Amino acid sequence: MPRSTSYESAHRESLLDPTAFWGRAAEAIDWYVPPATVLDADAPSAPRWFAGGELNTCHNTLDRHVLAGHGDRTALIHDSPVTGTVRGYTYRELLDEVARTAGMLTELGVGKGDTVVLYLPMVPEAAIAMLACARIGAVHSVVFGGFAPPELAARIDHARPKVVLSASCGIEVDRVIAYKPLLDAALDRCEHRPDACVILQRPQAQAELRAGRDLDWADAVRSAPAADCVPVAATDPLYILYTSGTTGSPKGVVRDNGGHAVALRWSMEHIYDARPGEVFWTASDVGWVVGHSYIVYAPLLAGCTTLLYEGKPVGTPDAGAFWRVVAQHGVRTLFTAPTAIRAIKRDDPKGAHLAEHDVSSLRALFLAGERLDPDTYHWARELLDIPVVDHWWQTETGWPIVANPLGIEALPAKSGSPGKPMPGWDLRVLDEAGEPCPPGTDGTLALRLPLPPGSLTTLYRDDERFAATYLSRYPGHYLTGDGGHLDEDGHVFVMGRLDDVINVAGHRLSTGAMEEVLADHPDVAECAVVGVADELKGELPLGLVVLRQGVDRPAPEVEAELRTLVRSRIGAVATPRRVVTVPRLPKTRSGKILRGTVRAIADGRDYTVPATIEDIGVLDEITETLRAGDR
Ligand code: COA
Ligand code: AMP
User: Fold this and answer.
1) Which of 136, 571, 578, 588 is most solvent-facing, going by the fewest CB within 10 Å?
2) What integer pLDDT is reported at residue 245 of this predicted model?
3) Cut 0.90: pTM above it
């Protein structure tokens, strides 16, 4: 694939002649049947890329490199400070594990198009299972291990998996979290019954297996034959990844095989400037899109060594953990969430731990998942003295919309901006009427259709919701849900979500889902949840509740119960910083809750009193209640 020599020319060509641009990029992928067309923009719900093409994503991540003579290269390193282990897999070893895991799934009756749910901690088997599904054309749906049973149950009921793959436990710093009881509790709530659950028994906890349903992972794989790659259509689904929307019911983002492989492979070289054989480390979780794309698929498509880290930036054992991993494995590219860097900065503001490790292999730090505050950017930039690249994207897009394409040319960085739109993305800033906003003016960030390869093709079993959520607001455009602006030079500034989605420590959560939990409590008459600024985690949920008439329990008791309820229904990552009882909620005359105003009050920011407010006095009440709680 010839390299584009300038960002401008690559971006221009990708929009003017997407067929030529992505057709060339597709040459980096092995096809059983080359695609008949590059772009079929007339497809009903979304553009279909590489229609007529047949490939296998697992072949492109593993077999292909082994066949090319790179079987002895390290494909995956599992570095797990929480268990005190480090284990490497060569491409040949990983292929062998994946082929046998695929064989196990086949023996359990899983075939092309069947769904498989994965609920796993950061163990190699998570990546192995994803690739095993891809190998046989099955569709995986990974559920983040920090989600509580009701969230897992909702995903199982929607995805209807033939098989669920899980583990006996995860480890959070020094706490063993038994996963199996969580899975059992989820399945007890489910209408759907998977045929089997395969459980990875870890030495830290032994799960009880239910006869007739549960199988021991090691036993099942040991007796399984290796399975070959099954050719699938480029447009066949590779995976479903549920993500938070504005309501409690998660959206199943569907990713195809062909577009995904082409786009991710292209991004590794052109955005991340990564080459085969280099160590690429994404410190995230396989349960999020960042983990899907840049722990599992992209590094392996590109022939890199990927690093799966089962630990935290701090506490495992200290704020030098990331630098230790970089030095020990010769990491060239590190990708993580700004929160992780803020946590390191908080514990080691002078970067004393850095001096203990040789991190000279590190060439770039990429950050995404939430807003990068300038302080953290400058701290990392000065400490590491390498490019620090903020980049903006989301579960739906699968790979960066806005970034700095280090593999094409390094654009001058601007504080507060993740960079410029990457090739393939036609970014527009639109006002209420759908007209373009002038530079410097905030509007809605939308993407002109067709979306490039690798972006979502629909929402699983919900084409209507896909169209209604993303395509209906501005015809001909995809709505990102974020607001922001462009400056005179075309740099993008992302100002935050315009909907009810918040980002807590890089975890995407729905305040709507939290409101549903609070509203379900018998003592709650009305509620609102907003994301308020937090120095470490970026945002944290704050719940305001109005109690029902006649509730005579002390408010703090109910508030504590409500925090616990959110934790047990959604997950520990969603625990509200506070739940506060207020006499009433601020509303417009038409009854809409003024969440933006509540956020401004909680953050201590200036705000304009909305002209439509029903009763201005309520704002003082809330200010006073929040202040009293802070004291
Ligand atoms: N399984 C079970 N529980 C989990 C979990 C998982 N996979 N991930 C998080 N949790 C739990 C934590 O143990 C914690 O529980 P606690 O309230 O009982 O202590 C809770 O969820 C909140 O977790 P977290 O938000 O991660 O906060 P923390 O205080 O444990 O750690 C950071 C703070 C900054 C170190 C941590 O948030 C971090 O590493 N952030 C980077 C996030 C990231 O990589 N995001 C991916 C998007 S790119
Ligand atoms: P997720 O789907 O979990 O990846 O979350 C996507 C959302 O995270 C986006 O819609 C943004 O609101 C936010 N986000 C991701 N990256 C950035 C970034 N670099 N700057 C600002 N917000 C970001």
Assistant:
1) 588
2) 80
3) yes
